[in-house]
Specification:
This protein has 301 residues and is of the alpha/beta class. It folds into two domains: 183 residues, 3-Layer(bba) Sandwich (FAD/NAD(P)-binding domain), CATH 3.50.50; 110 residues, FAD/NAD(P)-binding domain, CATH 3.50.50. It has seven helices and 17 strands. The strands form four sheets. Strands 1, 2, 3, 4, 5, 6 and 17 form a seven-stranded mixed beta sheet that branches. Helix 1 links the parallel strand 1 and strand 2. The longest helix has 20 residues. GO terms for molecular function: thioredoxin-disulfide reductase (NADPH) activity. Pfam families: Pyr_redox_2.
């Protein structure tokens, strides 16, 4: 038996749940399929989300799921394996859902540099986003590891939260102009390859270089490689933008007429509150698209 929905949402994070809330309140039949592996699971608290600042990420998802279910939305603990051209959504369990429209909000994976200590303390005192975590480590001895071309700019940004900042070029030597900016802002540049982020007593103690030099630090910022979890979008034939991410318009529409995408799966810079907003915007556009569909009989209450 195939369950039929107006909209199937793939991914139950901030974008997917907020979209489901808007659609369910618009009296659309909605299913949210989620495998239960949120990107921000290692973090103890979320920040920058009005009225929810400091809340554990799992609590936001719990409340969101409860709200969606309260309006009649279905929450399916499963993983989507295939989006078929006939709009059948095949799940890993073997269940099949039929959808008039599909929204993908599966997020991305942070691909971390293979430096000992980074993965162990990720989301605690090894961090990426200063807007998310800078306040919590303000005025402490901080470090930025040079792991991507964006790392020098990350260092200039992190300096806003602490005057005691060291940039370790590692594999991202700053251009002369960036190095001059760093020094002008009081950022120390310590050359050499980083061998380890030293962890002691369940906390970062130092950054160790390949020559054995240790520089005492209490928190480390590093830029991961953002890898979108967009396999189902790629398989559906969605066009990509120059960035390499799936291309969407201002409402989240992809190049496939019945398929939308929102959140980190198409925008690596989206924070939680941005992703939630993107989900709401996509939901409104999906609903309008259904309203304008030639066959109006299916929309009768």
């Amino acid at each position: 038996m195939t369950d039929r929905y107006d909209v199937v949402i793939v991914g139950g994070g901030a974008a997917g749940l907020n979209a489901a809330l808007v659609l369910a309140r618009a009296r659309r039949s909605v299913a949210v399929v989620d495998g239960g592996s949120p990107r921000n699971a290692p973090a103890g608290h979320l920040h920058g989300f009005l009225s929810r600042d400091g809340l554990p990420p799992a609590e936001l998802l719990r409340a969101g799921r409860e709200e969606v279910a309260g309006y009649g939305g279905d929450l399916v603990d499963d993983v989507v394996s295939t989006l078929r051209p006939d709009r059948l959504v095949e799940l890993a369990s073997g269940r099949v859902l039929a959808a008039r429209r599909v929204l993908v909000a599966t997020g991305l994976t942070d691909e971390l540099p293979e430096i000992p200590g980074v993965r162990e303390r990720w989301g605690h005192d090894v961090l990426h986003c200063p807007y998310c975590h800078g306040w919590e480590v303000r005025d402490r001895p901080l470090a930025v590891l040079g792991t991507s071309p964006r790392s020098p700019h990350q260092a200039l940004l992190v300096r806003q939260w602490s005057a005691d900042l060291v940039y370790f070029p590692h594999t991202a030597e700053p251009a002369r102009e960036d190095a001059e900016r760093m020094r002008a802002r009081g950022i120390r540049i310590v050359p050499g390859k980083v061998d380890e982020v030293v962890v002691e007593g369940d906390r970062v103690r130092a950054v160790r270089l390949a020559d054995g030099t240790e520089v005492a630090r209490e928190a480390v910022f590093v830029g991961p490689r953002f890898v979108p979890k967009d396999g189902v979008l790629a398989a559906a034939g969605c066009a990509r933008a120059e960035s390499g991410f799936v291309a969407v318009d201002g409402t989240g529409r992809t190049s496939v007429p019945w398929l939308w995408a929102a959140g980190n799966v198409v925008d690596p810079a989206a924070q939680l509150i941005t992703a939630a907003s993107d989900g709401a915007r996509a939901a409104a556009d999906i609903n309008l698209d259904l309203v304008l569909e030639p066959d109006q009989e299916a929309d009768a209450a």
